[in-house]
Request: fold
Amino acid sequence: MSDIIAYTLFSGSKGNSALIATKNTQILIDAGVSARSLEASLNSLGTSFANISDIFITHDHSDHTRGLETICKKYDVRVHMTKGSAEVILSGALSHEMHEKAQIHELIYNYTAGDISVSSFRTPHDSRASVGYIIKAGGHTIGYATDIGHVNNAIRENLSLADSVIIEANHDVSMLKDGPYPEFLKSRILSRYGHLSNEDCASLCASLCEGRAKRILLAHLSEQNNIPEEAFFSVYSALGNIEARGITLAVAEPFTPTRLI
Reply:
């Protein structure tokens, strides 16, 4: 294993999770699929839940939390969440293990797991208390922000610290507006507390790559309202000649690991 690796394990409306690992420490961001599926994904990368010390939750929606209760029953992990998210997640938890392993934090918090440091920042999404994360390890700084309705100063300022970024490119606006979703759902996604469009993601990435960012992984694409090639092209066009600039750009696979670093 190199100094640090980062993968999305699952990415999209059916579930989200990412692995950050150094030689000494392994953590997950979110656990939005079954424990069995996550363990199989980790196994495919040569690791397992036996090596995961901490899970950091972005918010309380099920596509980010689905596997938590079983994971807490089966494995020795700490699960970090904001007070707002905990009010929702723990109110529906049936097992005492879930309550025992929950580490409840203020909205903005810092935590060090082994040789990985994690700092939260607020993100605009229609959940109780949604956050993104800045992760520092092995000389790298990784920014993680999905489920963001719009790009605000907190997102710009925090992600500008990162040399590698996992960022939402949820939908193509035209596909969403012309698609089969009911109007209330279209309005929710398009709202300032919904999800980030390809266009807005591209604008943000262009700004980040003028600064420190050299690796971009597009995540949380909608199966109904986006196409990976469309998301990639939108950001690629905004970035210009990424090859000459030493920038890497990729789109996260929905159900198989995709490497950032």
About this structure: The chain has a mean pLDDT of 97. Residues 242 and 248 are 7 Å apart (CA to CA). The radius of gyration is 17 Å.
